[in-house]
Each structure stands twice: as structure tokens, then as C-alpha cells.
Amino acid sequence: MFVWLNARTVKLSVSIATIAAGLVTALLVTTLDRFGISGLAEHVRAGIEAIDFGNTLMNVVLGILLFVSALKLNAKVLERQQFVVLSLALLSTLLNTFVTGYATWGLLSLFGIDIPVLHCLLFGALISPTDPIATVAILKSIGLPEKLEVLIEGESLLNDGVGAVVFTVLAGIVVTGNEPTFAGLSLEFGRDVGGGLLLGLVLGNAGAAGSRKADDPAIPFLMALAVIFFGGFAARHLHVSYPLAMVVAGIAFAALSHRQPESVRNTQLLVWKTIEHVLIAALFSMIGLLALLPNNVLGWLPMVLIIPAVLACRYLSAGSVLLVTSNWRGDLRLPALLTWGGLRGGISIALALSVPETANKELLVDMAYAVVLCSVLVQAPTIKLFFRPQVLKQLMKAY
Predict the structure, then answer these.
(1) φ and ψ at 124, to 5 degrees?
(2) Are 14 and 3 a contacting pair, CB within 8 Å?
(3) CA of 389: how far to CAs of 263, 376, 393, in Å?
(4) What share of the chain is helix, strand, coil (3-state, %, to 5)?
(5) How far, in Å, CA of 268 to CA of 359, rounded?
(6) DSSP letters of 188-251?
(7) Can you say whether residue 104 is alpha, beta or left, with left for phi > 0 and alpha for psi between -120 and 50 degrees?
(8) Model confidence at 399, in pLDDT bands (50, 70, 90)?
């Protein structure tokens, strides 16, 4: 109903419309419950809690969405910017994890909330990845020049894998309580990232080889499904990054499938686009419905203040990496575009819900939820206001 109303009236992106639908539904259920329709809120809440949101998103939905986004990425433009994109995805994500973590620890300390620094670093890791699904949908709507679009989209696709790896390493330290060593952390991080890249390259090449010169659109579609689902199985058993594997597999699959007939490629992309819209609608509706879960850990003031803190840390980390790794001419609006256009979404929520029970899980979920709602409901609708076509043209000259 919300999608239909949105298409007929305000015409917002699917992600904004569906998360609003989830929030309104949560409000409606809560209101009806207070008017004496007993058990309704508890029934819906029990259904949400029964869903393994983190596992389902990270091991199924995310793989499909990342593969499809990578499939549509312009590999030639990405190749010309690969150093900057990789630097932003790797260095900026690592830097942002620590800057955000320590900023969060300092902010919570001001409110008398005692939390270990390691748990704040865990929050920095789960909130650092930008959501490629929400980000790409919004960027398409503002008409970004292709060079800037590939820069932001490529970084958003790759930093999910890096952020998930950093989160996994830190979560393991929280659970075991062992003192980490630099050599051990480097080995684990290198295995997850390097193994994910290698697995994606192998699967992407195998899938493309199996569907090359196919006249039936079903063949490349089924080969892509095989890559996605077998990739999840292999990544879990090899303990490598599934998100990174799917991004690389999608890029390789697209690059090596150029011999397919035009009609086959168009049909395949149309099918994937439909599946993508369905999954996005389900994902962001669920994020809105998560408002029904109890969240009495933080007051409203620290939840509001964590949002500008996260944005400031993102601006600092992205600007620092751009300064060192690119020909950026110092226009401060470019890191601002990376900050305001780098939306947080389902990945941050899934990672927050995957926080070990020994940590301050409810607190981290509350903060992540506040940042995600601001991303989708405030940043996404206003990006057109701040980055008009003439501003984007000026940014192209500065980059």
C-alpha cells in the first residue's frame, strides 16, 4: 500500500518509502495495543525476534544485493579509479572504525555511561560500512557524473566486506577476552579479505564461463544463483569474507559475460532488478518494524548526538584518505558528498544484531538504529538539496 501511495504521490525511493511503511506500521500496532487490542504488539514483536535477521541478511540477502550491484557497475571506469576506491574502502574504513569508536566512548562518558573502549570500537566497525543498496538508489536519482558515481558506489560495495571483517575480528576478541597481537590480527584480517577476493574471482570466472554464449536468459541467471549460494557456503566453511567475494564475483561475471547476446543481458538485468526491488522492500520494511523492539538503554539526547559524531568521523576519515591517495584539489564538498551520500542501512543493523551477548548489545543496537534512521529518512531525501547539478560539475573539476 505504501509503495503504491508513494508511486502516486511523493515518489520517494523504495528504501525511504518502505522504511517509513515499517515505522508507521510499528506506530499503528503500538497505538492499537494501547487501545486494548491485547497481544497484537507482542505477537508482531515475537515474529520479528524469531527471524535471525543478522544471519539471513549477511548470508543470503546481502550476497544477492551485492552481486547484483556489482553486476551493474561500470568495470572500465572502476579500473581507472581502482587505487582511490580501494584506499577508501580499506584505509578509510579502518580509520573510521577507530575514530568513531573513540569518539563514541568519549560521548557516552559525558553522559555517565560506562562502556569499555573495545565495545565502542565494535560500534565503530559496524557503523563504518555504507550501505550500497540505499546509496546507489539515491545517487541514481540525483544524476551523479559517472566518475563520481563509480567512486562512491565502488567504495560502498567494497567497504561492506572490510567492515564486516573488522567487526568479526573485534567481536571475536570481545567473546574470548584474549589479548590480541598485531601479527594475529593481521593474519586473520588478511585471510578474510584475501580469501574473499580470491573466492569471488574464482566463482565469477566459473559462472561467466558456464553462461558464455548462452542464448537462453535462464542459463546465466541460474549460473549467477549458483555463484551466490555456493559462494555463501564456501565462504562460511573457508572463514573468508562473503560480502567481498560477492562483489568481486559480480564484477568478474559482468566483465567476462560481454559475449552474451544483447537480449540475454537485458533480460537478465531486468530479472535481477525486480528481485533487487523486492528484497530492498522487505529489508527496509523490517528495519522500520524493528522500532517495536524494546530499546530503553539510551536516552533520546545521546541517541541524537551520536548521529553528528558518526557523520563527523566519516568526513574526517574520507577526507584524510582522499588527501593522500587522489588528485583531489581540496574542495571540501567532495568528502561532504561521500559523507552525506554514504548512507547506512541494513548491513549496520545486521551487524549490530550480531553483537555478542556479552557486549553492551542493546546500547549498540540503539545507536546503530538512530544512525540508520537518520541516513534513510534525513540524508537520503535532502541530498538533492545540497548537491545540485552545478555543484556536482564543480566537484568533477576538483577531483
Answers:
(1) -60, -40
(2) yes
(3) 33, 21, 6
(4) 80, 0, 20
(5) 43
(6) HHHHHHHHHHHHHHHHHHHHHHHHTT-SSTHHHHHHHHHHHHHHHHHHHHHT--HHHHHHHHHH
(7) alpha
(8) low
Burial of 331 (0-12, 13-18, 19+ CB in 10 A): middle
Q: What are the φ and ψ backbone dihedral angles of 341, each rounded to 5 degrees?
A: -90, -10
The pLDDT, as a whole number, for residue 180 is 65
Compute the distance between CA of residue 224 and CA of residue 199 in angstroms, rounded to an integer. 14
Q: What pLDDT score was predicted for residue 97?
A: 94
Indicate the length of the chain as a whole number. Answer: 399
Query: Exposure string (b/e) for 22-50, b if CB count within 10 Å is 16 or more?
Result: bbebbeebeeebeeeeeebbeebbeeeee
Residue found by looking up cell 543481458 in the block:
265
Which three cell numbers, joined as nine digits, stand for 165?
571483517
CB of 268 within 8 A of CB of 221? yes
pTM: predicted TM-score of the whole model, two decimal places = 0.82
Structure letter (DSSP) for residue 83? H
Q: Which three cell numbers stand for residue 288?
A: 522500520
Mean pLDDT of the chain: 82
Per-residue pLDDT band at 134 (split at 50, 70, 90): low
Q: Tell me, what's the pLDDT at 359?
A: 67
Phi, psi of 293 (to 5 degrees): -70, 145
User: What distance in Å separates the CA atoms of residue 207 and residue 355, rounded to the nearest whole number?
Assistant: 34
pLDDT value for 292: 75
C-alpha cell at 119: 565495545
